[in-house]
C-alpha cells in the first residue's frame, strides 16, 4: 500500500513538473480542491472528451448533443430534489476540528479489512504456488473467515443506515469500529449531520430584488428541461439520447486525492430516453457498452470492475459504477443509472407544462424512462494518467519515466528533432514540422542531447519522435522512434503521414467500439 501511495505522490509531482495539472491560483498559495489544466493536460483532456463525444454522437444515429447553461431557474433544483436532498452526512472531530464524510470514514475502514484479507491471500499464494486454490482458501482459512465476517457485519449495518438515512447509526458504526481521526488520532466525534452541497449566488441587483440561483451540481437537469425542445426540433423517435459535456460545482467538504474529488469539475453525461418497462434491458445494454468503451483504451481489462450501489438514489431503480484501480484503490469513474421517469415527471409537475412523448407505434403518450451514463472527466483523466505512468529501468542501469498513453489521446502526437542545429538539419526539421502540423499536434525540440530530448517526450507521452540527421539530407529519410519499445526505424519522409495517421487517429480508437 505504501508503494502505491508513493506512486500517487510521484504522479501528482509529474503532473505539475510536465505541465498537465497545476494548483489553481498557486501564486496566492492555491485554492483548496481547485486545479488548473496545463498545456499538455488540456490537450489530453480535450482528446478524452472527443473520444467520448464521437463515441456517443458519431457512432449512434439516435444520440445528439446539447450545451445547456450553467445557470438555471432555481425551481429546477427544487423539482430535481437537490434543494431538499442533495446532502452529505458529515461528522467533526472535536480535537482536530476537522470535518469528514461519515460514509467515507466507514468505507475506508471496510477497505482496510479488505486489505487484511488480500494480504492473507497473497501470503498463501506465495507459499503454495501453482497448487493454490484461492476460493478454497478464502472459504476455509480461519483468519480470513474472521475478517470476512467482521466486514460483512459492518457492511450490512452501513448499507441499512445509508438506505434509512439513519445519521445516529452512522455515528454509532464509527464509534463501534473505533475509527479514529487521521489527524488527531482520537475518537472524539460529534453527531453526524447533513450538509447541502450546492453553491448558491444571486442574480440581478439587490435594488430590483435579486433571485437566489445555484451553480449547477450536475449537468443532467439541463438535458431534462430541454427534452421536448430536442425531441421536436430533431424529430427524435424513442429510444434516443441527449449528450452533454460541461462544468458542475459541488461544495465538497471532504475534497481530496488530487483531482479525484474537486469543487469545480467537468462531466460527460448522456441521458437515454426509453419506453416504460424497457428501462432495465437498456440499463444492461448501456452497462456493457460503457465498460467496453473504457476497456477499449487498452489500460488492462483487470483494472476495471462494476460496483452495484448499496443505496439507490430516490429517483433510481438500478445503478452501478464502473470503477478503475487507482493508486489509492478501486474508485468510481463512471455511473450508469436507471432514473425511471422521475426527472421528467417532476419538471412536468413543477412547471405545469406537459412533458410527454407521443409514441406513434403504440398510439399513446407517456413520460419516458431514462438511462443515464455519467463520467467525471477529471476522474477519467486521473485514471488514464495512473494507467499510463510507467517507471522503467533500461539496459545499463539507466531509468526513464514514460507515459504510455493510447496514441490517439496523447497531447503531442510527434516530436521533430534535428540531430544538430547546423548544416541545414534544423531547417529540414522545420520543413517536416510544417508539413505534418495541419494533421497532428507536433513539437519541435533542438535543445540538449538527443537522448535527453527523447526522455522529455517520453515523460509527456509523445508516441513518435522523428530524428533528422545527415542521411536525411542525402536520401530524404528520417529515423522514427517508437515510445513504448524505443525501437527505431528508417523511413522515407513521404511515408510519415501515412505511418503516423494510421496509429494516432481517433478513428483507430473508435473502430475498437464496433
From TrEMBL:
Cellular compartments annotated: Cytoplasm
Domain of life: Bacteria
TM ranges: none
Residues where ATP binds: 250-252, 260-265, 332-333, 376-379
GO annotation, biological process: diadenosine tetraphosphate biosynthetic process; glycyl-tRNA aminoacylation
GO terms, molecular function: ATP binding; bis(5'-nucleosyl)-tetraphosphatase (asymmetrical) activity; glycine-tRNA ligase activity
Catalyses which reaction(s): tRNA(Gly) + glycine + ATP = glycyl-tRNA(Gly) + AMP + diphosphate
UniProt-listed SUPFAM superfamilies: Class II aaRS ABD-related (SSF52954), Class II aaRS and biotin synthetases (SSF55681)
Record-annotated Aminoacyl-transfer RNA synthetases class-II family profile domain positions: 178-411
Residues annotated as binding substrate: 101, 218, 265-269, 372-376
Class of the enzyme per the UniProt entry, highest EC level: ligase
One protein family per Pfam: HGTP_anticodon
Keywords in alphabetical order: Aminoacyl-tRNA synthetase, ATP-binding, Cytoplasm, Ligase, Nucleotide-binding, Protein biosynthesis
Cellular component, GO annotation: cytoplasm; extracellular exosome; microvesicle
EC number: 6.1.1.14
Subunit structure: Homodimer.
Known function: Catalyzes the attachment of glycine to tRNA(Gly).
HAMAP family with a match to the protein in the record: Gly_tRNA_synth_B (MF_00253_B)
Family the UniProt entry places it in: Belongs to the class-II aminoacyl-tRNA synthetase family.
Protein name per Swiss-Prot or TrEMBL: Glycine--tRNA ligase
Top-level taxonomy: Bacteria, Pseudomonadati, Bacteroidota, Bacteroidia, Bacteroidales
